[in-house]
Amino acid sequence: MSETFTSVAQEEAGFRDRARLSFDLDADICVIGAGLAGLSIALEAARLGASVAVLEGRHIGWNASGNQLGTVMPGFALPLTDLIERIGFEDARELWAMSKEGAEFVRANATEANMPGIGPSDGVLEVSNVDAGDRLISRLQMLHEDFDTEVEGWQVDRVREALKTDRYFHGVYYPQAFQVDGRKYVHGLAALARRAGARIFEDTPVVSIDHSGIRKRIVTPSARLRATHIVLAGNIHLGAPLRRLSETLLPVWRYAGITAPLGERLHEIIAFKGSVMDSDGVDHFRIVDGDRLMWESPETTWAARPQRFAGSVRRRIRSIFPELGHVEITDMFGGATGQTVHGMPQIGQLRKGLWVASGFGRQGMNTSAMAGQLIARSILWGDERWKLFSPFELVWAGGATGRVAGQLVGIWGRASSAAAGSLARYRERARIKDRAREARLAEANRAAGTGPRRPPPGVRPRPAPPPKPAAAEVEPASHDGGVSQ
């Protein structure tokens, strides 16, 4: 087990004596769920002067929030071009700017002073599984010129200099993006929220909610709570009282593993120090603890023991970086993200005083922070920018049928990505062979043209034909048909 995760286990052991809500309580804001979104809301609202109570049915960051790679970058799960097509250019620009604010919220909190051992590091590289140079240029122009995002385009040679594999072609480098220790961040967020005045109660599931009236009532197994505002930040685990809301999310479990120490050979093969993700959303990895590789790849639409996927992670690493040879997976973890049908987060007010913050998908670090700022500032300052999410309604995710369909779509997407990548590599090899053949032919032609041609032995050379007279030397014919004098 890696040093990072050992320290987290020790940290979590300190939370065994967790505070439960055992007495009736009044608060301005009640947040249900102590993951990234719920704790971001609690921290921002407490800093702005509100009294905040957080109710968590299990413990802080027990699901996806405490089991992710910690990559922080702007954007959403929905591709930018699709976002523009859905809501228009100007609104897409504003949403993108808000996603950047969310990333900066994480950066401001994830410092060594606030969260010792958080280990921030800069740079995220998104690599393409196919040769997509033309599309890359237009995307870079749009991000840089229209969305004010610092990006760099990496040519194939530069990508392969940093990552010793032929699986990847072009890349988009985000120098302002970064990564942190994901597990430490969620616990550090809870510590900051407590320090700001928020009260966090774990092992306190919500039994029922009455959201009518000015003061809403929340019932737990051992106490009741009243609040002017309720924020539902429990993702797919909101439970029976809010099952209809949780059913608007498709649960997708992502699994990741950490290798044993790999020594210097890891840095020789993977020279890039930040996070790497492919453009198809299949693989996501980075180096941790000096010489270990953290790799996220498998996903399912049902819960499974993460240890089941250790072999899948090991095989995936070997297929991308065969020079690493056999690697040992020493730790596996996973968590369920809630993905919406339209691919955008659910952020906003359902009815007066009842708010929702969920459905962040794979971009949870920056979007959950953004949701925390939007909702807290709307409640306390009247900021209404959350209404930009109004076009993304609550849509039923299809229940059990939706899970089966989602799994099939995921399998098809991975197979399509693999097929497209294989075709791209085949074409690249064919181009290399063609260039080598052309180079050999050109070299042969140059060698043949370096001196006078000599006939083979025993063959007499043909005499050169007499030169033709120049056009000016030919006598013009007379007009009377005779020969001129």
Automatic annotation (TrEMBL):
Ranges where the FAD dependent oxidoreductase domain occurs: 28-377
InterPro entries assigned to the protein according to its UniProt record, in alphabetical order: FAD-dep_OxRdtase (IPR006076), FAD/NAD-bd_sf (IPR036188)
MF (Gene Ontology): oxidoreductase activity
Keyword Transmembrane: no
GO cellular component, one term: cytoplasm
Region (Disordered): 438-485
Superkingdom of the source species: Bacteria
Pro residues bias (residue ranges): 453-469
Entry keywords, A to Z: Oxidoreductase
Protein name: FAD dependent oxidoreductase domain-containing protein
Taxonomic placement: Bacteria, Pseudomonadati, Pseudomonadota, Alphaproteobacteria, Hyphomicrobiales
